[in-house]
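Section 5: illustrative case.
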């Protein structure tokens, strides 16, 4: 997805106009470094350098902790998948799906680290790109509607040793992590996603053929059996694919953990901490604002709501979208408050943006904390509805006025909090934050 800076119109005015609007996609593109993430010095004396340095250092601690949790839960997922493949049945498939959902919790809280930190944004496409044309990977239903103009939309890597994409023939006889990584954006289409969480999700759940009705994907465990009772065809290749794509996810997360490991002389974290503190503060705030506005309010909610399209929801095969939205928003709040609850239940706290803003302007700090809490409450409504049986793809259905309004309310809250993020940044001397809108108008 090519990211565009927000127009100069007041975000507060946008938030007000959204309250009466009728509406509310992350692609597999390797994201470009946003121009808005460049740094400018704040007005002299507005931020104490030592205090700001402490905030950036604690932020780096949080990033390391979140990615460490994402890595450990991905390894737990890998173990569950190995157990499933050793004995494919309903019980082991359910356990693998449960492990996938658990692995999403820390990873989604990492998405706020994108945008300003281009080392993450450039890497993220291999790990979490979506929506994907699942016909690139495996068999699909006859009703399958792929992205227009995608030459690899029905290539079916699992069923073929060689695939044809436009004029090119590509050897896929050997399914390895490296081969799968090379197939992302095949033929120039962002919808060709061969790796990451969502490729694994599709392989575990299969297509969700329920539209905006209840129910998620329902791939049978027998798609991974061999011999009598096997379904799906090409099961050995499907088993190999699932192992390889999971191994790639684990190694990608290991790489990012290394980038943020403390006391390493030449990794990304060391570079960040050596820069002026304002650079780090800007990256933190830009990530918060961009995930809030262009990505979560725009790509992940507005697009799917406007089109009444479950194909555009984030975790579309598993119907886990409500959780993905909740933990994305939780990540934004984490960064501002300097808090993160690890998967083992321990809580990481320390110097925060909130403490800096409160010192500069207590009213601005209180306003942003209130907006962050309000956003979480609005998205909690979607979580509660899902727990009661009405998932996100049902909320966005045409004619579901109450469901549509729940999503609109969450979008409005996200846009409003983005205005407060900009206001808080201004109190720290960062007056040109320009959060990424992903070219959406609210």
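Designed sequence:
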């Amino acid at each position: 997805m090519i990211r565009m800076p927000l127009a100069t119109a007041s975000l507060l005015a946008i938030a007000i106009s959204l309250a009466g609007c009728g509406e509310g996609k992350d692609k597999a593109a390797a994201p470009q470094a946003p121009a808005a993430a460049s740094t400018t010095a704040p007005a002299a004396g507005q931020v104490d350098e030592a205090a700001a340095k402490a905030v950036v250092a604690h932020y780096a601690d949080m990033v390391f902790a979140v990615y460490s949790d994402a890595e450990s839960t991905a390894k737990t997922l890998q173990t569950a998948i190995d157990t499933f493949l050793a004995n494919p049945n309903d019980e082991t498939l359910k356990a693998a799906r449960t492990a996938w959902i658990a692995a999403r919790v820390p990873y989604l809280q990492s998405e706020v680290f994108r945008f300003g930190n281009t080392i993450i944004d450039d890497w993220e496409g291999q790990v979490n790109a979506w929506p994907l044309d699942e016909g690139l990977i495996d068999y699909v239903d006859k009703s399958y509607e792929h992205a227009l103009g995608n030459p690899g939309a029905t290539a079916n890597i699992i069923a073929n040793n060689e695939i044809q994409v436009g004029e090119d023939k590509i050897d896929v006889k050997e399914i390895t992590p490296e081969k799968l990584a090379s197939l992302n954006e095949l033929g120039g289409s962002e919808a060709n996603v061969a790796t990451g969480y969502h490729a694994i999700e599709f392989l575990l759940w299969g297509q969700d053929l329920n539209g905006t009705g209840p129910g998620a994907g329902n791939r049978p465990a027998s798609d991974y059996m061999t011999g009598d009772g096997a379904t799906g065809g090409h099961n050995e290749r499907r088993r190999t694919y699932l192992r390889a794509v999971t191994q790639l996810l684990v190694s990608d997360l290991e790489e990012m953990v290394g980038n943020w490991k403390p006391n390493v002389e030449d990794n990304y974290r060391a570079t960040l901490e050596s820069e002026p503190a304002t650079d780090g503060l800007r990256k933190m705030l830009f990530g918060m604002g961009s995930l809030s506005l262009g990505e979560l309010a725009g790509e992940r909610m507005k697009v799917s709501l406007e089109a009444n399209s479950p194909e555009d929801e984030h975790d579309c095969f598993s119907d886990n979208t409500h959780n993905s939205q909740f933990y994305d928003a939780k990540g934004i709040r984490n960064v501002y408050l300097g808090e993160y609850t690890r998967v083992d239940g321990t809580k990481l706290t320390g110097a925060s943006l909130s403490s800096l803003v409160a010192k500069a302007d207590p009213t601005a700090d209180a306003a942003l904390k209130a907006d962050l809490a309000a956003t979480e409450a609005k998205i909690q409504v979607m979580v509660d509805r899902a727990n009661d049986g009405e998932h996100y793809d049902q909320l966005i259905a045409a004619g579901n006025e109450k469901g549509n309004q729940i999503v609109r309310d969450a979008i409005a809250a996200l846009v409003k909090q983005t205005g407060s993020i900009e206001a808080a940044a201004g109190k720290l001397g960062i007056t040109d934050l320009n959060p990424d809108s992903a070219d959406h108008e609210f």
